[in-house]
Amino acid sequence: MTKSFQKMTAQGFTLIEVIISLGVFGLIVSGLFSLMPWGVENVSKIKDRSTALGLVDAVQVELERLGFSIVEHGSKRLTGLYSAEPEDNDEVRRLILVSPRKGGMAVLEQVVESQQVRLAKQLKVSPIMVSDELDEVITDLGGNIQFNKSQDKPVSLQGFEAPALETHARERWIDEKDRYFAIICSQFAKQPAGPDTPPSRHFHHPSNGYLALEVNIQWPYKVFDPSEPDGFKMIEEKYRSKISFPVAITR
To answer: How many domains does the chain have?
Structure first.
């Protein structure tokens, strides 16, 4: 080993080299830290989407529990349903199921009735409002269907206000601030692309032995907010993530 090489190795790093190295290291570390919130947020979004996709079976079970009549009248979209030529109505009903953020269950929260208009050759339904809640309806053939109670027992979460009633009520109760997923079930429009187009093969008619529904899962629906009087707030529909899929129940 030469003397010149021994002298160079004995000197080590200069102060300038150390400062430059620390600066580069600091830039790398700060860049990694800036990516952490983005990464955590993406993981949360992926988890929520996976949970939403996993609610398919829970939705099917809840619709079957409610029964054909309640689901049919709670999601009605056509006028003159029992006539020869039913038509798309100006007012449509939507059956709203809810699920907590962890998923695993779907429970009927309420039935709402909203306005339907045709925009850009497509049928659009107004966002869900508290005032749209529908408690009961008179059927076309007579008789009354209550969406919130049946024989003094709760059908929906609107049918009772606290979980400390009966065992089945406690098991099905979801606190309002925990209703993270909104599962909006509605019948298919007869002619969604316009009155001059062929009818959709999914639109419902009483002669069918099944009822096809369009299910739209949206989140976050309601979130905890201590600044609000009720302890939660409803997130506007335009800020929610969404997925859609069809389901069907039989008579």
So the answer is: 1
* 68 closest CA partner among 244, 213, 201: 213
Q: Do 217 and 237 meet the contact criterion of CB atoms below 8 Å apart?
A: no
Asked whether the bond before 100 is cis by omega within 30 degrees of 0, the reply is no
Sort 190 into a burial class: Cβ within 10 Å, 0-12 / 13-18 / 19+. Answer: buried
Parent domain of 93: 54-250
Say if 141 falls within a structural domain: yes
Q: Token digits for 139?
A: 């059927």
* Residue 153, in any domain of the structure: yes
DSSP character for 2?
-
DSSP per position, 142-165: S-EEESSEETTEESSGGG-S-S-S
What is the residue whose two structure tokens read 């079930």?
185
Q: What's the predicted TM-score (pTM) here?
A: 0.80
User: What pLDDT digit, counting tens, does each position of 40-73 carry?
Assistant: 566 788 899 999 999 999 999 999 999 999 999 9
Q: What is the dihedral of CA 90, 107, 109, 64, to 10 degrees?
A: 40
- The CB-side HSE value for 33 (13 A sphere, CA atoms) comes to 6
